[in-house]
Design goal:
Jelly Rolls, about 5% helix
């Protein structure tokens, strides 16, 4: 989405309007011990338009988040007149994700902090057990008007869309998702998606020109709202994936207790007890 990262950052640091929306859930820090694993593979990288070659390497989105705004794969942009689907990518993991207490998944985009606001792009999130049947997180976007190519949004107006937390220039936070939010999804209700056996996570760009809508009615609002984010964009256009993490907040105090006697599959994830006791799940300040 950025042509000049530094130039945009310097402009955005002047935007200091206080955030005032209802969705102020904190992000999860990249070094939080509650992150017990990271995406290890990908399928179906299908970028949309306006993505330069340097931003088309999905390997950059595997493994831990780095906070480096250049360490991303871009999903591309769709014009408001396009009938083609948005860009997307699917991630795979060494062991299944499970619905535990609290957040179960965290997604890092390379959003730029701008005071209480954010220069970032948003993405829909879906999960699957078999790679064919999908459950999408219902979302809310209360941004009232277009923000422009390099405009900012209030992240507290956003719920259950990836990309609402800053992950650049000294801040590295991801957007958390709780699989319990999908309990009423038809695919979950039918058993086609098992929330105790999630093998695939798909991120789909949410084009920010206002021709895609949220699910606000499902949350009690009178009508669904158009989704706005930085639009139009080129270069690393659309949602930029930096990393996808697996989260276990089920232990007391939010510290993941992932030793071999608990309910987690895969010995490769049984190492977070070795992490520093000083690590915490932290708020991002927006």
């Amino acid at each position: 989405m950025r042509v000049s990262f530094l130039a945009v950052f310097l402009v955005l640091t002047m935007a200091m309007t206080a955030a005032a929306g209802p969705y102020d859930e904190p992000g999860i820090a990249a070094d939080s011990p509650t992150i017990i694993g990271w995406a290890t593979g990908y399928l179906n990288y299908l970028p949309a338009d306006n993505v330069d070659a340097q931003w088309q390497d999905p390997q950059k989105a595997l493994g831990p988040a780095t906070g480096n705004p250049n360490d991303v794969v871009a999903l591309g942009e769709r014009d408001v007149t396009s009938t083609e689907p948005p860009g997307e990518i699917t991630f795979t993991f060494d062991a299944e994700l499970r619905d535990r207490a609290g957040a179960d998944l965290v997604i890092f985009e390379n959003g730029f902090p701008a005071g209480d606001l954010l220069f970032g792009e948003l993405g829909f999130v879906e999960v699957s057990t078999d790679g064919e049947n999908w459950a999408r997180f219902l979302c809310v976007s209360l941004t009232a008007e277009p923000v422009g190519a390099y405009g900012t949004l209030d992240p507290t107006d956003i719920h259950n869309l990836a990309g609402k937390h800053p992950n650049a220039y000294g801040q590295s936070f991801g957007t958390p998702f709780d699989l319990a939010d999908l309990a009423d999804d038809p695919a979950v209700q039918s058993g086609a998606v098992d929330l105790q056996n999630i093998r695939y996570v798909k991120i789909v760009d949410a084009p920010g020109g206002g021709n895609y809508f949220d699910d606000a009615v499902s949350f009690g609002y009178a009508a669904n709202h158009p989704i706005y984010d930085a639009y139009p964009t080129t270069g690393s256009a659309g949602f930029d994936v930096e990393a996808v993490g697996v989260v276990d907040e089920s232990a007391t105090g939010g510290q993941a207790d992932d030793d071999t006697s608990d309910d987690d599959a895969g010995s490769s994830w049984n190492d977070d007890d070795q992490s520093s006791a000083s690590g915490t799940t932290a708020g991002c300040g927006v």
